[in-house]
Amino acid sequence: MNAPIIKKVLVDSGELRMKVAGLFQAVGVSPEHADQIAEVVVFADLRGVESHGVQFTPRYVRGIARGHLNPKPDIRVVHRRGAVAVVDADNGLGFLSARRAMKEAMAIAAEHGSGSVAVRNSNHFGPAAFYPMMALEAGMIGYATTDGPPHTVVWGSRRPVLSNDPVGWAFPTLEGLPIVVDTAFTGVKEKIRLAAQRGGTIPADWAVGPDGNPTTDPKVALEGYLLPIGQHKGSALIIANEVVCGALAGALFSFEVSPKLVMGADHHDSWKCGHFVQALDPGAFGDRDAFLRRTSELASALRNAPRAEGVQRIYMPGEIEAELSAQRLRDGLPLAVTTLEALDAVAREVGAPVPSATLATREMP
Q1: 98 and 168: one domain?
Q2: Which domain holds residue 252?
Q3: What is the pTM of this model?
Q4: Which pLDDT score is estimated for 263?
Q5: Which distant-in-sequence residues (6+ apart) come within 8 Å of 232 by Cβ?
Q6: HEC string for 5-69
């Protein structure tokens, strides 16, 4: 069985960002915050991470319109001691509180060499890479992680009690192209969905069915839950992130968060989840230039390692995404027609201008 063809059109990313921001403004989000949210979701699409991009906008907008999320959160630092701080997100979207937390971490790191900030009472923050990459602007190392709704089993269990707790790292280099890690500790649900569309199978260590037993049937897996990568090792890494995002931040653990978004609801329910971000100033540890040289030497050595048969090029983490983003900024951003239709639908629901009415589109080559 062939996978269905998803029709896409090319749009200008800057214009799309304005249209997305307009939808958030229509439900009471300030122009500044609306633009910040739109920046992050379009950033995800530019880097090829559509699973965390514009397609989720209707759910966010409905979550605000229906009173589940705070359109005007009072995001504030509620605790500070030395090189650490805690931010309360006031039930706003995580795009805003994670950004505020990273700015706070960077300010602390400028003084102390490192800054660690925990966030509570927050919600989905989109692609994990965005916030560590903020630290690159100051020549710093950035880190971010989050918990969220339960859709992953702890190793040895039959029911979901964990999220996939994604992590992001960003490391500056001398050559200018940073090393950017953005990963999670489970398989990718989009790959399972694609296997279901094609009538194929999946590895038995990707997911369990609703009965809690491992399955190779992607359709059964879509009704069930994800397994941690690396069995008990991936499970342990998720648990570590649960501690810093939940207990340290004073936020909910994943098993306490509403699973409604994961279960396919058309809106983002209130999660009250936690994030944890860090900024590290390499100059506080010694010679900044020496650090940059060493990270560049690492990247060069790995790129030039002997390649396996059939491999044309070895990439550093984040390199493919950076090149794709540059291409899409130049040539246009592919946007699924179904996503554009979903944006139009939610615009009509909240009384906002319909994006497709004024968004210039071009056919894909």
Answers
A1: yes
A2: 73-185+229-328
A3: 0.94
A4: 47
A5: 155, 156
A6: CCCEEEECHHHHHHHHHHHHHHCCCCHHHHHHHHHHHHHHHHCCCHHHCHHHHHHHHHHHHCCCC
